[in-house]
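Consortium newsletter contribution from the modelling node. Members have asked for a concrete example of what our holo predictions look like. Here is one, prepared for the magnesium ion complex that several groups have been discussing at recent meetings.
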Amino acid sequence: MKDRAILHSDANCFYASCEMVLQPHLQNKAVAVCGNTEERHGIVLAKSELAKKAGITTGMPNWEALQKCPDLVIVPPRFDYYVRFSKLLHGIYERYTDCIEPYGMDECWLDVTDSIKAPMEIAEEIRQAVKDELGLTVSIGVSFNKVFAKLGSDLKKPDAITEITRESFKEKIWPLPCSELLYCGRQTTKALERMAVHTIGDLAALPLDYITNKLGKNGNMLWHFANGLDDSRVAHMDYCAPAKSLGHGITCVENLESPDEVNKVIVSLCQDIGYKLRSMNLFAGGVCLTVKDKNLFCSSYQKRLDAPVQDELTISKVAYELLVEGYDFKQSIRAVTVTAIHLSQGGTPIQSILLHDYERDERRKKLNSALDEINDEFGKGAIKPAVILGESKMPKNSHKEIVLPGMMHK
Ligand SMILES: [Mg+2]
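And here is the predicted structure:
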């Protein structure tokens, strides 16, 4: 059978790059998109390449970012614009295939197996078109499966293409640390290290029985990934899974010591949740707050609402109440996730081109979230029933998640 041709296209520094297109005077500046820009304690949600070079990281408080990089330009997030850019990116991808599976607002897998053009030629055309037409850059991985395509898009950026073939993957992928593999989270990485498995090549060389015994299904899956045996399909662009829960979390750079500090983070996370609920015409019937203390112990609290809501104010207020009622602050807090739960569909579906994007967006996060965060981050025992709600949590970098049923469909 003919090998598949899969691209993974990742828009570089997406939110910050969108802002630099919208506000050209920001070009060539260190830019950070931050929640709560008026607040001293707002946090960095995304940063430009230059800001990254200056040491700015996602989750860093604004004041610290400014201390690190006094020239930093802080701008508030405008998700509605980013969604439009995301839609435009999809428009470019759709010139080549309708097998497009988003992984977040800024990443997509494309299956171009049936195209008459060569995959590298398509990648090059996409890279150029994105730059010329949108003023954004992407990094693209080209491979014969999704996992390697995604890895490829991480290898060279920004504005770059990396091909990983059956002939080259051992040389290009195997020397990399296991943590580079999709769904190999922190806990799994640690477990592998305890077995002296450091690189993807080490993992690939283990007997399958051994790794399955040690790490169960997840280990089995990762072993297949490491050996280039990922056969999961790229979903069709019209595939939409209904959302079960929708959340947003972030790991803070500094520990949060007081309810007030945590509330700043809650409020900034809820902006995104409220916006997404409205875009998807969903209502939250409950709120779940998960905090992780500095010893990485998670506590989770949830509450049903009297009536379903879509607004961030109510959600953040309830999340704050949960915090104050539930958490004793004996330990300071490292990570915060707010999740809208018991979702229901609103009466009149909004006619919005954004809807598709969001729904597809959601699928990915769930994928990432569920596997990565729950299995790895929390460890099987650490997770409390409240967190299970859907299958929750924030992915490795962006710390955003939306949870949907039907993940990892093959
Ligand atoms: Mg990106």
